[in-house]
Amino acid sequence: MSAAAIRILVVGTSTASTESTLKGLARSGWESHSVKTVREADTVLRTIRFQLTLATEKLPDGTGYDLAWLVAQQTGNLFIAVPLSESCLWLPAVENGVRSLGERALNPLMLKTEAESILRTCDTAIVAREGERSGRKSSSGEVLRAEVPLAGAVAQFGNAERFGRQTNERFERDGELLPRGRSAADELVLTSASKAPSHSSRSLRESVFQDFGSVGKRWRGL
C-alpha cells in the first residue's frame, strides 16, 4: 500500500465499533495505518501527513492528547476516544489545524459521518490543486509552441529583406564597373540581370508576408 493511499492514522487499541467504521471508510477508498504508542505515532506523523488521526485516550507511553501539537502543525484532524461501559465517546481535539477540545462530543455513528466529510473535502482539495497545476503547465506549453513558428517567420522575413538589398546593391555596383563601350547585346544582358533580382526579391518578400500572415492566424487560433 502506498503512503498516498493512506488517509487515517489509528493510535492505540481500537474498539469493535471503531473497526467497523474503519472498514466502511476503506470500502470508500480511505485506508488507515495503525500504531500502538505515542512515540510510534509521532514518528509516523513526521513522515506521512494524515488527514485524520484517531487515538484512544490512554496509551502505553502517554495519552492521545500528546499528539495534538503535531497534528495541529500539519493542519490535520485529531479525535480522541474516551471509553464508556459499552461503547466510547469521541472528542474532537484538533479540527483543520485548530484546537477544539471540549467544544463537542461524537458517538460512533456521528464519527463515521464526520470522518467521511473530512476525507471527502480533503480529496476534493487535492484534485483541485492537481488540476490547477496541470492547467498551468498546459497553458505554458501552448504559448511556447505558438512562439516558435512566429519567431521563425520573423527571421525568414529579415533574411529575405537582407538578401534582396544585397542582390540589388551587387548588380548596381557591377553595372557601374562595366566599360562605356559595351555593345547592344551587353546592354540587353545587363538590363535583364538588373531587373531579375528586383523581381525575385519582391516575389520572395510577398511569399514571406503570406506565410507570415498564415502563421499569425494559426497562432491566434491556439
Give an overview of the whole structure.
With 222 residues, the protein is α/β, with parallel strands linked by helices. It has 2 domains: 104 residues, Response regulator (Rossmann fold); 84 residues. It is 60% helix and 17% strand. It has 5 helices and 8 strands; from the N terminus they run βαβαβββαβββαα. The strands form 2 sheets. It has a 6-stranded mixed beta sheet. Strands 4-5 form a two-stranded antiparallel sheet. Strand 4 and strand 5 form a beta hairpin. Helix 4 packs antiparallel against helix 5. The radius of gyration is 38 Å and the shape is globular. The two termini are 42 Å apart. The C terminus is likely disordered.
